[in-house]
Design brief:
Blueprint: H1 2-8, H2 18-22, H3 28-44, E1 48-51, H4 62-73, E2 78-84, H5 92-100, E3 102-104, E4 110-112, H6 127-132, E5 133-140, H7 149-162
Parallel strand pairs: 1-2, 2-5
Antiparallel strand pairs: 3-4
Length: about 160
């Protein structure tokens, strides 16, 4: 479906070949091949759409964060979206509180249960991911892992950016 949306927007999606990946036996060699293929695709890209939807925890998929950093380092414009189920989840510290618990000290500094500093800029993601995105769309949805509204908004933003 993502590829079809990109095609409809007049853009070429550089997505991993999931069917091919699933057909192979997992191994370190396969992992290195996947990495090399993703790096090559990122070098070819003109722009990026990064899905920052919280995944397996309160923050974005680490692979998506890595790709956002690589693409930024390559000078590619990055557009991003985040799907969440409630408006309160648009704040990173609030999401972290639900997963690991947070405390605010006497100076107003936020720490997790281990005493580690928690970024509290009232942003939806770490300041580095948030600040890199030319646009970061927040979509409140009942189906955060499958809703493609954010992707559609990013594709339109790319078209306007390139236009």
């Amino acid at each position: 479906m993502q590829r079809a949306l990109c095609d409809a927007a007049g853009l070429i999606a550089l997505l991993p070949d999931e069917a091919n990946l699933l057909a192979q036996e997992p191994s370190e060699i396969l992992a290195r091949q996947i990495y090399a293929a993703r790096m090559a695709a990122m070098r070819q890209a003109d722009a990026a759409v990064i899905d920052l939807t919280p995944w397996r925890g309160p923050t974005a998929d680490p692979g998506a964060a890595f790709e956002a950093g690589v693409l930024s380092g390559l000078g590619k414009p990055v557009f991003a979206y985040m799907n969440i189920t409630t408006e309160d989840d648009a704040d990173l510290a609030t999401r972290l509180s639900g997963y690991v618990g947070i405390e605010v000290d006497d100076e107003g500094v936020v720490h997790d249960q281990d005493g580690c500093l928690v970024e509290d800029f009232e942003l939806p993601e770490t300041l580095m991911l948030w600040a890199e995105a030319r646009r970061l769309f927040i979509v409140v949805t009942e189906d955060p892992l499958r809703d493609l509204t954010g992707l559609q908004l990013c594709l339109e933003a790319i078209r306007q950016y390139a236009g």
